[in-house]
Design a protein that fits this description.
The protein is of the alpha+beta class. The chain is 23% helix and 26% strand. It has one domain. It is elongated, with a radius of gyration of 27 Å.
Amino acid sequence: MKRLITAILLAGLFLTPCAAALADGGYFYDFGEDIYEPSQKAVILFTDGHEDLILSPKYEGTAGDFAWVVPVPARPEVEVADHGVFWELAEITRVHVLYESGGFLTGTESLEAPGVDVLEEKVVGPYDVAVLSSGDPDALVDWLNANGYFFPEAGGEIIAEYVRNGWFFVASRISTGEDAGSLAEGNIEPLVLSFASDRIVYPLRISAISSDDCEVLLYVFSENAVVPGEYPFLTLNTPEQAAYFERMNGVFYVEYRDEIPFGEVVNMAAFGQLLYYLEYGETITPDEYWDADDETVFSLEEPFLHMNYLTKLRAEISAGDMVDIELHGYNDSDYVDSDGDGWSDAEEVIAGSDPEKMDTDGDGICDSEDAAPLNRDNLPDWTLLVALAASLAIAGIIWLISWRKVQGRKMD
């Protein structure tokens, strides 16, 4: 069974920079903000020690200037996926607020360099891809530049850390073949990196090479909800919070956290086709799997039935704060929640609310469900009674004064 998708999704997110393409090349890792705005957008599927990472790169400039490098902790398999996967996930997690390809490269020669092992070269969809390993970061950078995978010399220190840790590298660029000329700026077919891993990883640090800051959007499928270990996080529990909450740089906001009931069948849309490929190692089209109810479905086997918890996380990260991310399971019992409102004390600090009060601003809305927990947007119910009582008291005083005046005139 293929479990490459999870790895590919993670790798794509980590390695795609957020800035515009460099003059001599670039590194790129709602609809609306979920489809068009994030500089890094990825889907991660993780189960039984295997990660599939679906990376949706975004580029600016000409196709010939686009290239990027993604480090992963184990040797990956690389394929492409339908970009519709991201449209479907954007729809699933959408906030509603009221008011084939493959084959080895032909006609090219790699310039071998001492200390660089070229494990695989092939064409995947619109990409030329090289899978590399190296024990010499300088030789690796030289190889990348000599073979058209433009990489800045300033990134050598970051590359050196991955080399020391024994990671592999996926170098990608838009192929110069016939299809390249028809590609427009923006998002192109996602890459899928599949690799063995004992944890969910997202190599973000390499993005600092070509980005001052970027927006990272992650969809993570696993056995339970996940949060980043290296960054603070805040859970947004209502559509209003997800839409309007004032956000801080360097904080991951959990916008969606729920089970996706795959059940025994999966719709044969883009995401279903991707799962089918991972499960059975072959592609399939809706026309090949059509049932009497006009729904394209297929049965899932293990381990995908247990990979049905979806977490959606978003953050704006500055280059100086970029580190590789490990995502781990979230359990309420692991975090102190002094006031029992559903936000941990650490989350309350991020929101600016009082960890000792369930309703910091006293507006009758629990902090963890309040889009503006520090601003009273409405009066609590008891204030209506107070206002009514005050009005009656004032009316009584006015009546009493008037009555006494009338009585005084009668006495005169």
